[in-house]
Amino acid sequence: MKTIQDTVSLIGNTPLVRLKGPSEAAGCDIFGKCEFTNPGASVKDRAAMGIIRDAEERGELKPGGTVVEGTAGNTGIGIALVANARGYNTIIVMPDNQSQEKMATLRALGAELLLVPPTKFANPGHFVHTSRRLAEETPGAIWANQFDNIANRRAHIETTAPEIWDQMDGRIDGFTCAVGTGGTLAGVGMGLKAFDENVAIALSDPYGAALYEYYAHGELKAEGNSVAEGIGQGRITANLEDAPIDTQYRISDEEGLEWVSRLLAEEGLALGLSSGINVAGAVRLGQELTEKLGRPARVATILCDTGFRYLSTLYNPEWLREKGLPVFPWLDR
Ligand code: PMP
What we know:
Layout: E1 16-18, H1 20-26, E2 29-34, H2 44-57, E3 66-70, H3 74-86, E4 89-95, H4 100-108, E5 112-116, H5 127-137, E6 141-143, H6 151-167, E7 174-177, H7 183-195, E8 200-206, H8 211-217, E9 247-251, H9 253-267, H10 273-293, E10 298-303, H11 317-322
Parallel strand pairs: 2-10, 3-4, 3-6, 4-5, 7-8, 7-10, 8-9
Antiparallel strand pairs: 1-2
Helix pairs in contact: 1-10, 2-3, 2-6, 6-7, 9-10
The structure holds 4'-deoxy-4'-aminopyridoxal-5'-phosphate.
4'-deoxy-4'-aminopyridoxal-5'-phosphate binds next to helix 7.
GO biological process, one term: cysteine biosynthetic process from serine
GO molecular function, one term: transferase activity, transferring alkyl or aryl (other than methyl) groups
Pfam families: PALP (PF00291)
């Protein structure tokens, strides 16, 4: 392998691994894109890179400038890494119910961190609106605006989708993932459909999000709730507009956690809950496509971030019990 000249170039080109347990469960081939191998250990490094590059190209972000963003954490980590590498400052606004690990990581990276109470999007104190106001008030700052800035999904159209297509030698029947901003689902969906419009694109939605009802019945409606961080959307963001979604699943935290547990115990993969929800969706899509095609389908999904970001939550028996969730048996040993 040749040397790499720039740390930002470490983003992307992540491996695609065949997942044994999910493939057996679905009776086909399920592959996971290992986004935890990005330098910021999540899929959001791609959006951070895409948004910052776009702002540079449009002349909005100048040397010594500042990037401000409202984020559940992973986008902030990606932004802080790329901003450090390119000579910008980072200000992150985050709801205070996200994992301690994400907050500690952001502080360690040198980002200025503002924690706000979690509220509904309509509330002016919501982390997204707070970050927009901060950007307006800060000289030389841009607002990354990951939800409605389509440089986010463009990064997936231009990098994630062609990587998956090449890694699967163009033999792919379906793709699914959950939605935070929608950048990954819409971008990978659009990118894969440009190669082959027959690739089925599915939304895997957690409880507490409104998109399952929207794509199934045309109405934004949420039901129940989820402890998954980084996913669960209540509106059609600009990144989701015209997303080519063929089918949708609603996935419970229990179902997602079952895959987080199995992938760790049986395949040595430490993942977060959004990855477990994605894998659960991929198993359903794989089963449906296998039946429809009359041969084992080939389905890809996203392994969004590392489980080490959730040691105080998903891998903590007290936290799991407090939330009424099943505890992985080895945690009680
Ligand atoms: N999983 C995790 C852990 C995330 O942080 C995010 C981003 N918020 C997602 C999934 C969803 O990605 P996207 O924003 O591209 O929809």
